[in-house]
Amino acid sequence: PAAAAQMQPGMFVGGRASGRIAVGTDGSGDAGAARGAVIDTLRAAKVGAFALQSDPNAGDCSRKPYAAYVTVSSTRFTLLEGTDVDIGVSLQDCGGWNVGEWHDHAVSASPSADDVRALGSQGAQRLLDWSRANGERWQHLTTGGLAYAAGDAPTYYYSLFKTVDGNMRAYVRGGGPAYAAGLRSNDIVDKLDGRYWWEYGTYQTQARAYDGKPHSFDIERGSKTLHVQLGEAFSS
Prior knowledge:
This protein is α+β, with helices and mostly antiparallel strands. It is built from seven helices and eleven strands. Helices cover about 30% and strands about 30% of the residues. The longest helix is centred in the middle third of the chain and has 21 residues, at about 115-135.
């Protein structure tokens, strides 16, 4: 993605990160053991996986040591027939944009560390199955840090969501066109294209994040009120 990298330098990783996937956890009890199995399974498939606790949403991609990030999560549920252990494997690009997520679970009277590792290995295998089924996206993800394919619609890599406090907030992919324009995750959106967002409606406002158009925003960030104008969208 050399030409695109020149247009959006923070959207893609540098050469030292190419082919490298960092694997972190959500900090839950079983996630550490499952992470080891995820790394081992990816390495067996010749994927450059390594352990790193990081936040891919923090900053753009230009200085990161990985092209993609995997978060391993775990949850335990108590059932009449035993304990249900759920292991999640979430694949994100270098800027924290979600690519795919897979969950595997098993019920046992007394789940062992081997049971947890087996679930982690299953999740990693499902990630590898996705990579084989989506070869072009996987290649772009592992070499440049962004999982895109020819024919994708133009995008600014942001979304809008309404929180329980009634505010409309932004979620922004680090380094993407919306990020480059100045929009950041958790910014409170007051106006969209000069009108209060509720004049459009919740669904209609959220849908505008995916129409590929250069919208403008009046936002609140802490004590500041800012205006953000989107520029050119990313196109594959």
